Amino acid sequence: MSAAAPPKTNRLGLPKADYEGMKSTLCLGCGHDVITKQIINAFYEMGIPPHRVAKFSGIGCSSKTPAYFLNRAWGFNGVHGRMPSLATGALVANGRLVGIGVSVDGDTASAIHFPATRRSTRSSRQPSRGCTATTTTEALAAARAEWSQTTA
Description:
Strand order of the largest sheet: 2-1-3
Mean pLDDT: 77
Number of strands: 3
Radius of gyration: 16 Å
Helix content: 40-55%
Strand content: 5-15%
Shape: globular
Low-confidence stretches: 111-134
Oligomer: single chain
Distance between the termini: 42 Å
């Protein structure tokens, strides 16, 4: 009888389980769980240590989502519409963190906060750490590139 194969690990030697979180309690089919699964896969494949990640969310369903990925990461739930501002401030204050914000349409795309966040991140000392990407894929690619530079 052969021994069980060791669990697959990423470039940091961490198993995918280290990137997961609690079991989801969200409604089936709402889309959050599909997004969460892709966030887990992306951070695992990029080899970003979970303890170097800050997760931000607003209120509503999006406030629950950060509990479902990167259970060893930092997390903060802001009030409605303030997630982008909180994330920008935290990431400017601690440039060693990789940030990810989870939000729904009314929380982030408000006419007041989203344009202000985009404007402030362009002129900050770390422009790639704000909400400047237009898609999750772009945001994760930027995080991967930045992480590669800091670990080289």
